[in-house]
From TrEMBL, chain A:
Organism superkingdom: Eukaryota
Chief localisation class: membrane
The protein, known as: Peripheral myelin protein 22-like
Biological classification of the source: Eukaryota, Metazoa, Chordata, Craniata, Vertebrata
Organism: Gouania willdenowi
Keyword Transmembrane: yes
From TrEMBL, chain B:
Name of encoding gene: mpz
Name recorded for this polypeptide: Ig-like domain-containing protein
Region (Disordered): 192-213
This protein's UniProt keywords: Disulfide bond, Glycoprotein, Immunoglobulin domain, Membrane, Signal, Transmembrane, Transmembrane helix
GO CC annotation, single: plasma membrane
Subcellular location(s) of the protein: Membrane
Signal peptide: 1-22
Ranges of Pro residues composition bias in the record: 203-213
Biological source species: Gouania willdenowi
Pfam families: V-set
GO biological process, one term: myelination
Membrane topology: Single-pass type I membrane protein
Record lineage: Eukaryota, Metazoa, Chordata, Craniata, Vertebrata
Annotated Ig-like domain residues: 17-136
SUPFAM superfamilies to which the protein is assigned, alphabetical: Immunoglobulin
Amino acid sequence: MLLILLGVLVLHLIILILLIVSTAASAWSVGGERTTDLWYNCMTNNGGYHCKPASNEDWIQAVQALMILSVLFCFFSLIAFVYQLFRLVKGGRFFFTAIFQILASVFVMCGAIIYTVMSPDDWRVEFGYAYILAWVAFPLSLISGLIYIVLRKKE
Amino acid sequence: MLTVLALMSVALLGIVPEQTEAIVIYTGWERHALVGSDIRLACSFFSWRWTSEDVTFSWTYRPDGSRDSISIFHYTGGAAYVDNKGPFMDRLEFVGNPSRRDGSILIKNLEFSDNGTFTCDAKNPPDIVGRPSSVRLLVFEKVPIQAGVITGAIIGVVLGLLILIVAIYYLMRFLVARRVFSINVSKHGKKKKEGSQQKQLWTPPPVTLYPLP
């Protein structure tokens, strides 16, 4: 059914876009006029908008790596989906697609958890939209991976 | 290196025609080190004259934020005199080779109070006119990890594992197909060569959801 195919594909693309935005935007923590992490710490002064690179601490680098890996794996899963769509034997399962998608969701989960635990406690600082997008992308990608496990090519 | 030296000397000659000889002293610009480690501060010079027996090396130290310099090392008459009263007592050692124009010193067991500027002055009689050269020492508690090292390492390891697993998977399938191993291939195998020739018209390939067993 064309609708299911389209729905699954649209979901996958939405997840990919969410992951890319969450990884690329440096807005994991916001507070006052500062937005920090994952890549730049930017501040709006009276003088203007100043950015300096984010700190080199180990946990920030780990979160960067995990977010990049999740984007990569989601992308690989998309390619694997398109590939298996045309090459899979009738009745076969989208194994590679599912595995990559579930790995992507695991990486996002690990990245978000590490950031939650290790980000410094400051009453003036809240979590920004990129952080929320990461947490939204995690269950979506998990569901998408499970859908791919259940999906079968029609006989 | 030699051409640079020659050019520098020619430039000096051009600027100061009266004094045809001047000694040029080289040290580093800045040195970084960890607390507790040892560091070798290098100093060498270039002189048009042969290295005489009366060559002298002097090192002075000026702590960060202070305007006073204190002399910590002197080599003259073939003997080296190290600091025996000041901040580098028992921590300074001469590791240079004056006959090779090297007046380097070794500071052991660095402390945070060693941050500062070290100035080397060398004299090669009769060539005594020259500018002392300074090197700045920065002592760190721990060498900061550069940005991106851990990131790149994690990404590299995971992608490497992925490629390895995929390669092993295809290798096993290849070996099974060649009947080198006899493993029961499951019926949910991926590509069969016969199943892929069915693309006459492009219709969207049918997929459907089966309920979980």
